[in-house]
From TrEMBL:
Belongs to the aldehyde dehydrogenase family. This is Betaine aldehyde dehydrogenase. CDD domains: ALDH_SNDH. Residues 28-492 form the Aldehyde dehydrogenase domain. SUPFAM superfamilies: ALDH-like. GO terms for molecular function: betaine-aldehyde dehydrogenase (NAD+) activity. Transmembrane segments: none annotated. Its EC number is 1.2.1.8. Keywords: Oxidation, Oxidoreductase, Potassium. The active site is at residue 266.
Length: 505
C-alpha cells in the first residue's frame, strides 16, 4: 500500500503518565487492595495512564454514596435553575481545559488530536443543551376530568443512574449521558472503559470545581466484571445507561433483570448507505469515505455497508478507492492526521479476520487489507480497505467490523435496496443518496433504523435524538428524549373543594 497518504511520527511523546483514581463521595481514592492497571497509547505502545482498579468494595461504596446523595435531596430537590447553573459552569470549564481533555482521549484511544478537539467542543455543547432542558422541563396538567378534579403529571428523577461507557468516544459519550441525568435530578455512578479512563476522571475534577455536591457524581475505574456487573445487579441502582457492544448490552439486561431496573442501551450498528444512480456521485463518494474511515471505523455509526445501484457500482467504487488513497493515516498527535491507531492488538486481529474470511470466500479487495506501517510509530494501524463482490450472507456484510473497512453490495431495484438495507440484526443508522426527494422519503420511511441521513452522513446535533432499533439499542440519547430517559412519570389526582360522594351509604 505504497500510494497511500501517510503521516509519520512527529515529535516524540512528552506527556507524563496520568494517575487516575476513583471519585467516591467527593474524594479521590485508590482501591482498598491497592490494585491498579495501566493503559498504553495504541499508537506509541508506551504507558500513558496508571489507574486504580476497582473491585466490588469500591463499586458498592460509590453506589452507597450516590444513593445517599439522591435520597437526601442535595441535588434531586434543587431547582432546575440551580442545576443548570452547575451544568453551564461545567461547560465553560470543559472549554477551558479542552486541550488537556482532547490529549487524554487521543493518547488512550489513538484517535487524531484534531478530531478529539472537535469532540470535546461538541461535549461542551451537550452540557449547555442539558442545562437548558433542566430549566424547561415540565409535566402535564389535566383540568378536563370533571369540575372538582385536577390531574397533574409530574416528571421526577429516576434515582441513582449507573453510566457505563465505551472507549471509542470517551468524553463525548459520557457527556451524552451525565448532563442529562443531572438535569433530571439523578445522581450517578460512572464506569468508563478500562481502555480510556482519564478524560472521565478530568470531568470529575471539573464537576468538583463547578460546585457539584459531594456524592452526586461518583466514578469507579476498572473492568466490566466486577465494576459494571456490580452496578447492574445492585438493588440501590435504579437505572443503567450503557453504550457499548450488543453482546455486553444483552449481558447488562440479564444482570439488571434481578432488580427490574430501567435499562437504556446504545449498541452496535451495521449501517447501510444506499446509493441511487441519480445522486451526485462525487458528493456521495466523499461522504462514504468519511463515514467509513472516521475514528478508524471504530464508530457505532460507521457507514460500513454501501448498497449501490449496479449501473454506478464500478464508478462509485473507483471514486471511493481514489479518495481513500488521499485520506491521511498516521500519527494521531499530528493535526493533519484524519485516521489514527486501532485500539488494541485483539481488536486489530478481529478486523483482519473479517477481511481475510471475505477474501477466502471469494470477495475482491481493490484496496488495502492488513497492517499499515507508520514510520516512527510502533503501534497498530489498519490500512483503508474496500471489499467488493460480496453477498449479504457474508459476515463482513452483516457484522460490525469496527475498523476502516468498507463492504460494497449492489442492487437493481428500490425494493431490493430496502430489503438489503434491512437484512441485518442491527438498526442504528442508515443513509440514502438520490436527487429525487420521493426516493429518499420512500427509503427513509421503510428502512429499520433510529436515524436516517439523506444526501449526507453522520451529522449530529445536541437537539436531535439518537439511538437504535432492533439489536442496536433501547431508548434515546440527546434532544428532549435524552432527558426523558432519566425521568419517571408520577400521576397525582386531586379532588378540589367539594366532598367526595360516599362509597358506603
Ligand atoms: N450506539 C451508540 O451510540 C454507540 C456509541 C459508541 C459505541 N457503541 C458500540 O460500542 C462497541 C465498542 O465499544 P466497547 O468495545 O468499549 O464495548 P464493550 O461492550 O466491550 O464495553 C463497553 C463498556 O462496558 C463495560 N463492560 C464490559 N463487560 C461488562 C459487563 N458484563 N457488565 C457491565 N459492563 C461491562 C466495559 O468495561 C466498557 O466500559 C461497539 O459495538 C459500538 O458499536 C455504540
Ligand atoms: C454517536 N457517536 C459518534 C458519538 C458514537 C458512535 O460510536
Amino acid at each position: 500500500m505504497t500510494d497511500l497518504t501517510i503521516i509519520p511520527a512527529g515529535k516524540s511523546l512528552q506527556e507524563p503518565v496520568f494517575e487516575a483514581r476513583h471519585l467516591i463521595n467527593g474524594t479521590w481514592q485508590t482501591s482498598a487492595d491497592g490494585a491498579s492497571f495501566e493503559r498504553q497509547s495504541p499508537a506509541h505502545l508506551v504507558t500513558v495512564t496508571h489507574a486504580a482498579k476497582g473491585g466490588v468494595a469500591e463499586t458498592e461504596a460509590a453506589i452507597a454514596s450516590a444513593r445517599t446523595a439522591f435520597d437526601d435531596g442535595r441535588w434531586s430537590r434543587l431547582s432546575g435553575k440551580s442545576r443548570a447553573t452547575v451544568l453551564l459552569k461545567v461547560a465553560d470549564l470543559i472549554e477551558r481545559d479542552l486541550e488537556r481533555i482532547a490529549m487524554r482521549d487521543t493518547l488512550e484511544s489513538g484517535k487524531p488530536i484534531a478530531q478529539a478537539r472537535d469532540e470535546i467542543a461538541g461535549a461542551a455543547d451537550l452540557w449547555r443543551h442539558a442545562a437548558a432542558l433542566a430549566r424547561t422541563l415540565t409535566g402535564d396538567s389535566h383540568n378536563t376530568l370533571g369540575d372538582d378534579m385536577l390531574g397533574v403529571v409530574l416528571k421526577e428523577p429516576v434515582g441513582v443512574a449507573a453510566l457505563i461507557t465505551p472507549w471509542n468516544f470517551p468524553f463525548l459519550i459520557v457527556s451524552q449521558k451525565l448532563p442529562y441525568a443531572l438535569a433530571a435530578g439523578c445522581t450517578a455512578v460512572i464506569k468508563p472503559s478500562e481502555m480510556t479512563p482519564s478524560s472521565t476522571v478530568i470531568l470529575g475534577e471539573l464537576l468538583i470545581e463547578a460546585g457539584i455536591p459531594d456524592g452526586v457524581v461518583n466514578i469507579v475505574l476498572g473492568y466490566g466484571d466486577p465494576v459494571g456487573t456490580t452496578m447492574c445487579e445492585s438493588e440501590h441502582v435504579d437505572m443503567v445507561s450503557f453504550t457499548g457492544s450488543t453482546g455486553v448490552g444483552k449481558a447488562i439486561v440479564r444482570a439488571s433483570a434481578g432488580t427490574l431496573k430501567k435499562v437504556s442501551l446504545e449498541l452496535g450498528g451495521k449501517n447501510p448507505q444506499v446509493v441511487f444512480p441519480d445522486c451526485d456521485l462525487d458528493d456521495a463518494a466523499d461522504a462514504i469515505v468519511f463515514g467509513v474511515y472516521f475514528n478508524a471505523g471504530e464508530c457505532c455509526n460507521s457507514g460500513s455497508r454501501i448498497i449501490v445501484h449496479e449501473d454506478v457500482a464500478e464508478a462509485l467504487t473507483e471514486k471511493v478507492v481514489a479518495l481513500s488513497r488521499k485520506v491521511a493515516f498516521g500519527d494521531p498527535l499530528d493535526p493533519k492526521t484524519k485516521v489514527g491507531a486501532i485500539i488494541s492488538e485483539a481488536h486489530f486481529a478481529k478486523i483482519d479476520s473479517y477481511v481475510e474470511a471475505a477474501r477466502e470466500a471469494g470477495a475482491e479487495i481493490p484496496l488495502g487489507g492488513g497492517a499499515l506501517e507508520i514510520p516512527g510509530l510502533s503501534g497498530r494501524f489498519y490500512g483503508p480497505t474496500v471489499v467488493t463482490n460480496i453477498s449479504s450472507g457474508m459476515a463482513i456484510a452483516r457484522e460490525e467490523v469496527f475498523g476502516p473497512v468498507l463492504s460494497v453490495l449492489t442492487f437493481k431495484s428500490i425494493e431490493e435496496a430496502i430489503e438489503l438495507a434491512n437484512d441485518a440484526s442491527y438498526g442504528l443508522s442508515a443513509g440514502v443518496w438520490s436527487r429525487d426527494v420521493s426516493t429518499c422519503l420512500a427509503f427513509a420511511r421503510r428502512v429499520q433504523a433510529g436515524t436516517v441521513w439523506t444526501n449526507t452522513w453522520m451529522d449530529g446535533y445536541s437537539e436531535l435524538p439518537f439511538g437504535g432499533v432492533k439489536q442496536s439499542g433501547l431508548g434515546r440519547e440527546l434532544g428532549r428524549y435524552g432527558l426523558e430517559e432519566y425521568l419517571e412519570v408520577k400521576t397525582v389526582t386531586m379532588r378540589i373543594g367539594r366532598t367526595r360522594a360516599p362509597w358506603v351509604e
